[in-house]
């Protein structure tokens, strides 16, 4: 236990870099899934929203670009701020999907899914802030 705490406090730069690489992989993977699983993701948007497929494809491209941005230290902080904004912007689609029991990504569980999704979203926001945005 002491060794773990010592490693964390003595190597914050490496930990933050590893956290950014992990988040990059997560966002690149989810961005690609916007193309591979577009049909399910479209269902996460209300039918009255125009251009649902283009929105899904554009947000997939945005996620890939944001994911790649975590790999360049010179743009990492700005990229983190943009990612925080993006995560907040897409939260309503997750809430909509959960409240309407959309059969995609756990949303079929309805509002119970929000008990998992909202803390996860808060964790992702914290992760981006801690690993990329905050100043050492």
Describe what this molecule looks like in 3D.
With 136 residues, the protein is mostly helical. The protein has helices at residues 2-10, 12-36, 38-42, 52-69, 76-99, 114-133. The protein is globular and about 45 Å long.
Question: The biggest beta sheet, please?
Answer: none
Give the percentage of residues in beta strands. Answer: under 5%
Helix-strand topology string: HHHHHH
| Mean model confidence by pLDDT | 88
Share in helix:
over 70%
Itemize the secondary structure elements and their pairings:
Layout: H1 2-10, H2 12-36, H3 38-42, H4 52-69, H5 76-99, H6 114-133
Helix pairs in contact: 2-4, 2-6, 5-6
Short description:
The chain has 136 residues and is an all-alpha fold. The chain has helices spanning 2-10, 12-36, 38-42, 52-69, 76-99, 114-133. The longest helix is centred in the first third of the chain and has 25 residues, at 12-36.
Question: What structural keywords apply?
Answer:
single chain; 136 residues; mainly alpha
């Amino acid at each position: 236990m002491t060794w773990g705490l010592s490693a964390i406090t003595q190597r914050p730069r490496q930990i933050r870099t590893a956290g950014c690489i992990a988040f990059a992989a997560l966002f690149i993977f989810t961005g690609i899934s916007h193309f591979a699983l577009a049909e399910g993701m479209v269902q996460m948007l209300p039918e009255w929203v125009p251009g649902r497929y283009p929105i899904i494809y554009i947000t997939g491209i945005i996620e890939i670009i944001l994911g790649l941005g975590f790999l360049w230290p010179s743009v990492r902080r700005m990229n983190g701020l943009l990612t925080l904004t993006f995560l907040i912007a897409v939260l309503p689609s997750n809430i909509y999907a959960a409240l309407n029991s959309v059969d995609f990504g756990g949303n079929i569980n309805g509002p119970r899914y929000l008990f998992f999704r909202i803390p996860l979203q808060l964790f992702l926001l914290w992760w981006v802030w801690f690993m990329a945005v905050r100043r050492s």
